[in-house]
Amino acid sequence: MTKTFGKLALGLLVFSGLGCGAQQKPATADVPKYDVDSQQTISGTIQEVKDYPCPVSGSLGTHLAIKAGSEILEAHLAPAAFLKEYGISFKVGDSVKVAGVRLMFDGKPAILVREITMGDVTVTFRDDKGRPAW
Ligand SMILES: [Zn+2]
What we know:
Layout: H1 2-23, H2 25-28, E1 39-54, E2 59-68, E3 71-79, H3 80-85, E4 95-105, E5 108-118, E6 121-124
Parallel strand pairs: 3-5
Antiparallel strand pairs: 1-2, 1-4, 2-3, 4-5, 5-6
The site of zinc ion has 6 residues, from β2.
């Protein structure tokens, strides 16, 4: 009886801990490191364009959901203001090629974008060391 109760209580603790972390995400989540050694290039189609506050950009960031093969990657580009300044915009359905670092972020497969190519236009968000250009 006591044992069962202990397990239950632990389960609840873990659960509430997770919920709490998710709510405080923009302020407290760790900024994932851009590891140049694990860079890769993926090709896919834009499924969704989303601006939301994100620790990667450090402000309101622009994100693309990119369908690459059978998976959907959350591409973290740059602050929305940076893209606006350069007149960069994305459309759902556009084919893109993205160079960056893949990782799991916020429970989803994600990619920190260094460079994105649409047709013959390439936009660079980070230098060759992965340092943000914004
Ligand atoms: Zn982001």
